[in-house]
What we know:
Helices cover 47% and strands 15% of the residues. It is of the alpha+beta class. A hairpin with a 5-residue loop joins strand 6 and strand 7 (172-174). Helix 3 packs across helix 4. The longest helix is centred in the middle third of the chain and has 20 residues, at 97-116.
Amino acid sequence: xxxxxxxxxxxxxxxxxxxxxxxxxxxxxxxxxxxxxxxxxxxxxxxxxxxxxxxxxxxxxxxxxxxxxxxxxxxxxxxxxxxxxxxxxxxxxxxxxxxxxxxxxxxxxxxxxxxxxxxxxxxxxxxxxxxxxxxxxxxxxxxxxxxxxxxxxxxxxxxxxxxxxxxxxxxxxxxxxx
Length: 178
């Protein structure tokens, strides 16, 4: 089978997605997920990632795939609904760029714990990782205190949604054990 490589700006300006026209299969990678959107790394670098992401969604819509294979989650065939969801989320980020910063911070905190293979991490160490990470230096509030408060807020929101849990040790944060 022959596949067409298509630029997929938004999550990463160098990303590609692959389309197999005969079968209507789109490997979207991080350009389109079924019910969420990927972190827009250009925005964390002080650039506009929203315009590229919206353009990529327009391209996906024009392809009208029968099946979408995302970078995360199961394959799906309801691309119209996924496109509406993604556009709404991107427009919300455009209206409030700080919303994207919080979204990115929460996503990357969880990925950091998974990558490290850490089951339990002191809350302060998580905040220290964020404050010391160059990926956030352009989007965190100016003062260390405000940045730490933002980290605490994001950790509390992750605990509230069950993405992280308050550990049995005072001040520790854990990944859920499922």
